[in-house]
Amino acid sequence: MTIKKMADSGLMIMVIYLIIFAIYAAVQPSALSAYSIQGLFNNSLPLMLAAAGATFVILQGGFDLSVAGTISLVNSIVAVLQFDGAIGAVGILGIALTVGILVGAINGFVVAYLKIQAIAATLATMIICQGIALLILRAPGGYVSDFMAYELTGSVLEVPVSIIVAFLVAMLWFVFRRTNAGRNLLAIGQDAKASELSGIDVARTKFFSFIWAGAFYALAAYFLAAQTSTGSPSAGEPFLLLTFAAVALGGTAFGGGRGGVTASLLGAATLVLMQKFLFSIGVSSFYTGMVQGLIMILAVLFSGAVQFVVDKRNIT
Amino acid sequence: MTERINISNLSKRYGATVALSGVDMGIWPGEVHAVLGENGAGKSTLVKILSGVVSSNAGSISLDEEIIRPSSIIEARRWGIATAFQELSLIPNMTVAENLLLPRASSGRFWPESKASIFERANEVLIEWEIDDISSQSIVADLTLAQRQRIELVRALSHAHCLLILDEPTAALPDTSWLFRQIRHVTSQGVSVLYISHRLNEVREICQRATILRNGATMGTVDLEGVDDEDIFSMMVGHESSHKNKASQENATNKEVLLETDQLASKMLKGINLKLHAGEILGVAGLEGQGQQELFRIFGGLHKPKSGEIKVGNKVTSLNSPRQALRVNPGIAFVPEERKTEGIFPSLSAAANISIPNFATTGWAKIVNGRLERHLAAEAASQVGLSTRYLDFEVGNLSGGNQQKVLLARALMTGAKILVLFDPTRGVDVGTKQSIYAMMRHFVDQGGAIIFYSSELSELVQLSSRCLVVYDGLITDDVAANEISEERLLASAHGPVNARKESIQEAV
């Protein structure tokens, strides 16, 4: 396996994660208990899902700021729906996904077909969604059913539900990137002009990347509600920057065309793990952001260095 | 026999620019039909319309007597029309197989097709078109340019059931025998081929007829058997413009040399030797992409040469940045072709745009004096014929011609004695052209020197006191003022073979 494939496959971020986890476990042996692992993954899942969604848009060369607004909106909706039990949870999931996909469809339509700049368009939807969230839920609170709060954050056959969800997303990506839709998405990110001349429907592919993103943001908001047993009209705000940091840490290029959803899942998990680790060794939370930023710069530098070496070899 | 494809009165406008204004042509089934024309004659627009990338404003295309209007590449393919583009449309970090089969690389309906099976299908395509040195599993970015060109061609060949469009298909191919074999294979099955190339000997080898375009309109269709190269060239440039109408210019080649290069080489350039004298307007002619762009960018300090020497005012210098190019005595000012992206500050006033070099070189912490700025700018503006009432306008709101004048005024403002102009009149109106010409003549009369490239031959003929022709990274011809004609330049620009023939004729 070449060094380039390693960097592209998300193996690097996997290694970084395991190293940090090993140090964390050495400092804090209780981290290896089933309970803490479950807790760690429950805490990580919402950011992982949000990063997974953003990856679809970033891979085609776009940008999506609506993540914060969509999560706030869906989180508020989940918290005002009073459906109980497993059926209720499935119903709420359906509504959440519908709302997320709707926001994604609006983003996609405006960006892909009306050709409005992605940053401007998604900034607008973010603000609009935040406004609607406040109309739905005035203040943090609301109602989350016991089923969601306990079963969705628990384990099935000793495996935490959150790990199962993350694994399913990784599987979905594994299949998706081998489909025509997945190949075309990566092709557009590499060279939109050449893709068009190759017969790819560029606008449609872009449109659907926003739909995927919206659905994943909704999923993130749904599990966030389950994890915190509450809803908040500003739940999405902390996600805005961390989502992009997680995607970059996973090695996905912001110009598009290079990277993948699985790497972003791991990038997000690494960011949350860092937070836990720094907390456990007693570093003030004021420093957490600094360390996370530093790790991100190092990861981006490393992937840039790999690309540089590869390019150099191609030229000579 | 009815024509396979018939194009009638096809027209296309981009905003105010007319790209095509009435193209008429027809191609028989199984015919290889050339489209010839100067740069900007409308060839690539025609290709884009036929392949569904852009749509026409007027006129019609009929395929087997049925009117079609392809609106995307995929739709054109459904009609059996496929194109190999000049600017190669392959995705770099994907395999050859994926590129050949896009946008439906996987044929699986409910589950993605396995890689092995995709490679297998791509291999069949490669074998069908006699490619045995490229694996369907290799990544396109790892291939040589010639290999990439063949993949682009194979993709078009495999989709072209009615019409195959080849836009400069041999630009990167060292040998045409493979391509011509494939072309003969498809034409034997009744596929028509539209062939665009600036290499006339190739066109004569493979094509039966040629349609000549000029200024976006058809000049006529000829049987290649019955015409010689000179007839074709004069149809391409037009008869009325072939005679010279320029002011007499004294020979400047014995004056002081301001700029000189010795074996200058870079990615595209293979060893350029030239001398630019004071008082001289040195024209550079060439087809697109022969290296002239790199040469000019090197002079402007925007591109680094790999080897060779540049002497400015008899001193060897390296031009590492535009700032350095300006400062090296007697100073080089470069005006790039892309004025929108590389030249102007659209939201500043014209006066500010003109006087920027003055403030950029005199100090970084000085306060800009608005009245001084306007005064300085007015002087330069008058030399390029820019009316002073435009000085307070935001440059973004000026017309293209006036923007160009602003850029030229800025170049004058720098005080440089050497002007390096890349296509200074592209896209500007006739009146502006005249004031630009006047400025250029005035500039060299004052002892400056100009080297300029133009895609319009008539302009080179009119302005140059000497004209160089670049072809494939080399200067292939150096034409003195009294010998410059559009035919001569065009012939030289189509390769050394034509140039030699021309000079032999003169020798006789």
From TrEMBL, chain A:
Q: Which domain of life is it from?
A: Bacteria
Spans through the membrane:
7-27, 39-58, 89-111, 118-137, 157-176, 207-226, 238-256, 263-283, 289-310
Q: Which GO terms describe its molecular function?
A: transmembrane transporter activity
Under the cellular component aspect of Gene Ontology, which terms does the record hold? plasma membrane
The compartments listed are: Cell inner membrane
Recorded hits in InterPro entries, A to Z, give: ABC_transp_permease
Membrane recorded as keyword: yes
Q: Which CDD domains match?
A: TM_PBP1_transp_AraH_like
Q: What is its main location?
A: membrane
Membrane-related topology note: Multi-pass membrane protein
Coiled coil ranges (UniProt) are none
Q: What are the UniProt keywords, alphabetically?
A: Cell inner membrane, Cell membrane, Membrane, Transmembrane, Transmembrane helix, Transport
| UniProt record similarity statement | Belongs to the binding-protein-dependent transport system permease family. AraH/RbsC subfamily.
State what protein this is by name.
Ribose transport system permease protein
From TrEMBL, chain B:
SUPFAM superfamilies, per the entry: P-loop containing nucleoside triphosphate hydrolases
UniProt keywords, alphabetically: ATP-binding, Nucleotide-binding, Repeat, Transport
Every ABC transporter domain range: 5-240, 253-497
PROSITE patterns from the entry? Answer: ABC_TRANSPORTER_1 (PS00211), ABC_TRANSPORTER_2 (PS50893)
- Keyword Magnesium annotated: no
Tell me which Gene3D superfamilies the record gives: P-loop containing nucleotide triphosphate hydrolases
Q: What is this protein called?
A: Ribose transport system ATP-binding protein
Q: Which organism is it from?
A: Vreelandella subterranea
